[in-house]
């Protein structure tokens, strides 16, 4: 029996409402499989915490998380604290400090939840998006001078490193090998004549090691269109930080609701803990009503279990998600009126009533 320590950062808004459902599902899977125990440690770092302490997390916050086996995060950001302050104070430093350079975002339509794309369903929409997560457009290089004057200047520099691009591209090729052997690389090398041209060169060089994978380079604008008109032609997609951010919200929308897509921020070498979270944000307009869809957080919990190597438990949780997608209950974003906790309870129930394999 293994013991895992999971750091919980519920954060803000609906993040705090959906995370407990994920923890309950992990506990249910642990009980059913009997293969592990979890200890959770909750960190109250959030925008509320910021208003009391003047920072999003303590100065040694990263060190406090370092020994966790995984980090499970709700959402960050709330009115009262500017988003760039809250995100650069908590979420983004965790991704960077723990070198979580892979942001894995599966885009899968589920039976029972209609995609907004007419005549498209689970057979057509199954894309594994792999987003670079520590550099690129999000590297944080730039600045502002002459603020408030007519001469004001703002720069935000994109930084691609050979090491950074090569490792994410290699990771994507490896995943394509496990799937349909198709890789789409998002570029914009017609306009971004330095960074994106470099990205393409690295993709071409790495491709030589993967003759069994067909790689196609698409300009990101055309790729966005392809997500909509021909999602069935896409298998694994690799993209820079910002391109991946945009494409995965589009992908989430194709799943039928942003209440579904989940995100794994991975340090594949396991030198540091990886972090799992729903793609959606704190949804201030919906927070406090208990109506947020917990399926994205539950899917993130499933990815957390995969990362821990708890494959059977991950399978139970994914089966439960599919069961609820088919049969309900549904939250408001999916046209129902169920509460967050009712969906969570249905998941736990489905995990407990899964047919025994052993
Ligand atoms: C996401 C979010 C974040 C990002 C924001 C909140 C900084 O949109 O995880 O996709 O852009 O990475
Ligand atoms: Mn995003």
Task: Describe the secondary structure blueprint for this structure.
Blueprint: E1 2-11, H1 14-33, E2 36-42, H2 47-53, H3 61-65, E3 70-75, H4 83-89, H5 91-97, E4 102-108, E5 126-132, E6 136-145, E7 153-159, H6 162-178, E8 182-187, H7 195-207, E9 214-219, H8 220-229, E10 236-239, H9 241-254, E11 262-266, E12 275-278, H10 295-308, H11 311-327, H12 340-352
Parallel strand pairs: 1-2, 1-3, 3-12, 5-10, 8-9, 8-10
Antiparallel strand pairs: 4-5, 4-11, 6-7, 11-12
Helix pairs in contact: 1-10, 1-11, 1-12, 6-7, 8-9, 10-11, 11-12
The structure holds 3-isopropylmalic acid (IPM) and manganese (II) ion.
Residues 245, 249 line the site of manganese (II) ion.
């Amino acid at each position: 029996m293994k013991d895992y320590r999971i750091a919980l950062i519920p954060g803000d808004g609906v993040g705090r409402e959906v995370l407990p459902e994920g923890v309950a599902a992990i506990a249910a899977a642990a009980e059913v499989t009997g293969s592990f125990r979890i200890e959770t440690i909750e960190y109250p770092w959030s925008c509320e915490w910021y208003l009391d302490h003047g920072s999003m997390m303590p100065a040694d916050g990263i060190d406090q998380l370092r020994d966790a086996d995984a980090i499970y995060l709700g959402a960050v950001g709330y009115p009262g604290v500017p988003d760039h302050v809250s995100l650069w104070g908590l979420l983004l430093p965790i991704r960077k400090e723990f070198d979580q350079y892979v942001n894995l975002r599966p885009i899968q339509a589920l039976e029972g939840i209609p995609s907004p794309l007419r005549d498209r369903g689970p057979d057509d929409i199954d894309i594994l998006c792999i987003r670079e997560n520590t550099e690129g457009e999000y590297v944080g290089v730039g600045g502002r001078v002459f603020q408030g004057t007519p001469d004001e200047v703002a720069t935000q520099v994109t930084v691609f490193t050979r090491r950074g691009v090569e490792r994410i591209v290699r990771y994507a090729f490896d995943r394509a090998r496990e799937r349909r052997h198709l890789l789409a690389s998002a570029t914009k090398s017609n306009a971004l004549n330095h960074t994106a041209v470099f990205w393409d060169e690295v993709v071409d060089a790495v491709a030589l090691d993967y003759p069994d994978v067909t790689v196609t380079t698409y300009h990101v604008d055309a790729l966005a269109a392809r997500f909509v008109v021909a999602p069935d032609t896409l298998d694994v997609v690799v993209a820079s930080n910002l391109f991946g951010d945009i494409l995965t919200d589009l992908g989430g929308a194709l799943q039928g609701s942003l209440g579904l897509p989940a995100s794994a921020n991975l340090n594949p070498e396991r030198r540091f803990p990886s972090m799992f979270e729903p793609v959606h944000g704190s949804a201030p307009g919906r927070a406090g009503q208990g109506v947020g869809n917990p399926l994205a957080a539950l899917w993130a919990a499933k990815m957390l279990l995969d990362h821990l190597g708890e494959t059977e438990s991950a399978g139970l949780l994914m089966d439960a998600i599919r069961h609820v997608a088919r049969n309900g209950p549904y939250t408001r974003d999916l046209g129902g009126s169920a509460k967050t906790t009712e969906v969570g309870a249905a998941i736990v129930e489905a995990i407990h009533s899964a047919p025994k394999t052993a």
